[in-house]
Amino acid sequence: MSVTRAIVPTASASRYLQQLCKHWSHKFDVTFDAHKGRVPLPLGPVDLVAGEAALTVTCTVAEGGDMARMQKVVADHLNRFAFREGELVFDWQPA
To answer: Residues 73, 16: contact at Cβ < 8 Å?
Structure first.
């Protein structure tokens, strides 16, 4: 498995986590509350943890999977919800 993590600075972490999980709950068996969520995307699971000053996003894909695509899909969706805040910063690191 390949795992990457981004700690995304934002004061609206819980709101974005819930918006993203609700958005994807129409297509996937999503679990979430105000502080953590899990989205089982076809490429692999996305885990989200909301803190006071940041949203931690962890992406997991099978070896040989398209991690770059997963990161782009997640970042693009979150940035749509954060349009009032401006573009969020994703510094993906191996986890």
So the answer is: no
